[in-house]
Amino acid sequence: MRKERSTKTKLVKEEVIGSETVFEKIKDKTPWVFGKTLRKPKLLFPDIKRPRMDMPLPGKSIAAIVVYIALFLLQTGIVYLIIRNPPAMGSDPRSGAPMFLYPDINESFIIEGIVASIFIFLCSLGFIFLYQASQYVYNKNIAIRYLIVGILLILIAFATLQAMIDQKLS
Fold first, then answer.
1. Which of the two residues, 102 and 126, has the higher pLDDT score?
2. Residue 73 domain boundaries
3. Is 22 inside any structural domain?
4. pTM of the entire structure?
5. 3-class DSSP state of 99
6. How far apart (Å, rounded) are the C-alpha atoms in residues 119 and 95?
7. Measured between alpha carbons, how far is 126 from 131 in angstroms, rounded to an integer?
8. 3-state SS, one letter per residue, for 41-69
């Protein structure tokens, strides 16, 4: 019996360039079935970085601030102020003292609309604080603080607006 020595040959991986296929690299060792008529080209696409015209999106807090400003402007009655063009402030015809509240319920001064909208906005902030209190269910101290501040804002705004209406009616 004859022993054959196994020789270890080192395999070198050759690089495939351009449209040259792997089968073309090893064509000496194995015949290509389809010949030279059918061949899959290897395409090299260049890595081109095209400039993009992306607009950066604003953060959620900026979007919320824009919404709150729009709500504040709508609550001031800006449409009423533009269409009716009321006076900024008035004066009492008998004593000449300045009046901040128009004596009629259907009319208002500009300053009266702005003050009322500030209190309506504070009331809205109170409801936002009530919502934030529900976010801190597991942290009782923070939740109670949010609840107290929210309820105080709502009650102060409600009482002040009721006082303004009561003074307008009397």
1. 126
2. 60-169
3. no
4. 0.57
5. strand
6. 29
7. 9
8. CCCCCCCCCCCCCCCCCCCHHHHHHHHHH
